Amino acid sequence: MSSLAAILNNPIEYLKGVGPQRGDLLRKEIGVFTFRDLLHYFPFRYVDKTKVEKVVQLHYQMDFVQLRGRIVRKEVIGDKRAKRLVATFRDETGEIPLVWFQGWQWMEKSLQLHTPYLVFGRLSMFNGYLQLSHPEMDLVSTEAGGGKQFLEPVYSTTEKLKARGLTGKAIGKLTSNLLEQLLPGEVPENIPASILQQYRLLPRHVAFFKIHKPMNEEEAKMAQRRLKFEELFIVQMRICRLKIRRHQLSHGYRFDNVGEYFNGFYNEHLPFPLTGAQKRVIKEIRQDTVTGRQMNRLLQGDVGSGKTMVALLSMLLAVDNGFQACLMAPTEILSQQHYKGLCELLAQMPLKVALLTGSIKGKARKAILEQVAGGEIQILIGTHALLENEVVFKNLGLAIVDEQHRFGVAQRALLWQKNNIPPHILVMTATPIPRTLAMTIYGDLDVSVIDEMPPGRKPITTVHRTEFQRPQVMDFIREEIKKGRQAYIVYPLIEDSEKLDYENLMKGYEEVKAFFPEPRYYISMVHGRQKADQRNTNMQRFVTGDTQIMVATTVIEVGVNVPNASVMVIESTERFGLSQLHQLRGRVGRGADQSFCILMTGNKVGQDSKQRIEVMVQTNNGFLISEKDMELRGPGDMEGTRQSGVLDFKLADIVQDKPILEAARACAEKILSDDPDLQLPDNQPLRNYLALLQGKSQWSKIS
Ligand code: ADP
Ligand code: MG
């Protein structure tokens, strides 16, 4: 077995047709070090050589075409610097030029006139005429013979490789050499037989053969499907095992009691019935916290879905069991809002709640720190000031992080270190990420979702307006203000062009002021260049209703709650991503009245922006929007995924291959729940394969 498998470990230069110099290039250029790497160097598409077109039927929308005919003329044209060879190719229906810009000397010599060729290449237009440039030319023995009867794989290559004769075709030839000498046993199976059967997957060695040398499209698809499944399945197996291991190793406090704090609040002071989704999540949290293991849960819920109430009830659960709890928010304003909101809700409860932020100093700070250390303060709310060393809890049992994308993984880890036994962690985010992505990058966290809005919300009406319509937009704002409402006008902020953004904002501010000369209308301006207390004051004036219009950069994006605001105007919408637009829109629609989101753009809008705007106009559903965002931008560009490296798949694409990913995840979970240590005979190949991978990458880094 080991000697058989070893062939794939051979250095690439030992393969027939490679040698030391080409070996060097293959390593440097495309990362192919071993036979195994070459086997995994997949074609990026196939060309169908089973079809032969007629010249008369060609049209510009065709891509690659194959023709059969003869060359009737060839001539070199153009001046010294831009010479090219033009060969006139004819079949029984018409003529088309074949053109070479490079290597034309050699082609001119070698092309034979009046001899049957099979020609394959990409159609292009030049001066309004169709032509083929740099086509592949194959001499065919009889004119009646068909095209080649299989799909030809196309491999990507580089200029340097080409210079050494390693064209895409030549790489294909090397792969053929490898496949010829490979025995089935040398490509051992790594998916249990029952799963192969259930999902009708090709055996591993067959799949590798067919992905490089399919006879037809169907075979290529089958091979890809099998290998995509494998890729996703192996990743999911590793993530799930990591999670199991963490569960086995981690100790956590037990919250066995549901006592007077939780029940007292729930029965007497709950201001509204919980939604089904809120109830479900609280149940999940309760289940997590009685296992004796540390909870690590991500709670996703759209803006306004009611995450705060879930946080509050969870904290009461901690207090019921004699523990302290803390709630950490990314900004001073947000923590103040949380503090104020929770104090109101808890006014009738015998509980000590405190706020700790950077601006609480001196004696007041000292007093809070002492009471946290002494355990008198049961619930502590604050910014990342909570993470500082001087903050020592008596017995922190639960730490909640709101709006998690503002906190790094490292900061979260600090919370763990607050005790010997780490507190339970609940991370809440209003930036929904698609489930498939969550499965992969947060795969070892447990995920809860609030997918239901509190009743009675009116969906926000979203419209697109251009610069031409600005006066009407301003009139609309005036109407809303007359009804007693408030409005946001938000400008983009991009780090690279901070100066420009600042100027934009100022210009906007002056413009808005000019539109609202009435002395009774006031405008708050908030941006990143202001000092924290100035920003705070301005924000506070809007919160209390002293100002009617808030002109701001995206600093207001996170969490600010002004239920009376009914209009959100987003300037230069083109410059925002979908998720960010959705976040901004979530600032309105928090009261009972109809709210509006107005997406402003220039008069001309690019295709990309158009698509995003359409999505925004059509739906208020954050999950749909995040799915769409991922589709438009690709998973690699989603927030927080870039560095994680877990998305470097060779074949799979978690957007397009979502059904495969879901199946692979389900399989991984099932296998591990039936056979956690992979002891069953059916799971041996998988176990061996995973053992081989062990230590090959830094997987523990995934958050
Ligand atoms: P988010 O998930 O964005 O943090 P919040 O917790 O701030 O949302 O809740 C948004 C608003 O909805 C708050 O005013 C809150 O009081 C209200 N709310 C939360 N849950 C419910 C519910 N079950 N029924 C009615 N209103 C609710
Ligand atoms: Mg919130």
Concise overview:
It contains 24 helices and 21 strands. It has 703 residues and is α/β, with parallel strands linked by helices. The structure holds adenosine-5'-diphosphate and magnesium ion.
Strand order across the biggest sheet? 11-12-10-13-14-9-15
- DSSP summary: helix tally: 24
Question: CATH homologous superfamily of the domain at 461-619 - what is it?
Answer: P-loop containing nucleotide triphosphate hydrolases
Strand content: 15-25%
Structural class: alpha/beta
Verbal overview:
The model is unreliable at 640-645 and 697-703 (pLDDT under 50). This protein starts with a helix and ends in a 10-residue tail after the last helix. Strand 3 and strand 4 (94-100) form a beta hairpin. The protein has 24 helices and 21 strands. The longest helix has 33 residues, at 217-249. Among the domains are: 51-145, Nucleic acid-binding proteins (OB fold (Dihydrolipoamide Acetyltransferase, E2P), Beta Barrel), CATH 2.40.50.140; 260-288 and 305-429, 3-Layer(aba) Sandwich (Rossmann fold); 461-619, P-loop containing nucleotide triphosphate hydrolases (Rossmann fold). Strands 11-12-10-13-14-9-15 form a 7-stranded parallel beta sheet, sandwiched between helices. It has a 6-stranded parallel beta sheet with strand order 16-21-20-17-19-18, with helices on both faces. Strands 2-3-4-6-5 form a 5-stranded mixed β-barrel. Helix 21 packs antiparallel against helix 22 (622-633). The chain is globular, with a radius of gyration of 32 Å. The protein is of the alpha/beta class. The protein is 39% helix and 18% strand. Bound molecules: adenosine-5'-diphosphate (ADP) and magnesium ion. Residues 469-636 form the Helicase C-terminal domain. This is ATP-dependent DNA helicase RecG. Residues 288-450 form the Helicase ATP-binding domain. Belongs to the helicase family. RecG subfamily. One of its GO terms (molecular function) is 3'-5' DNA helicase activity.
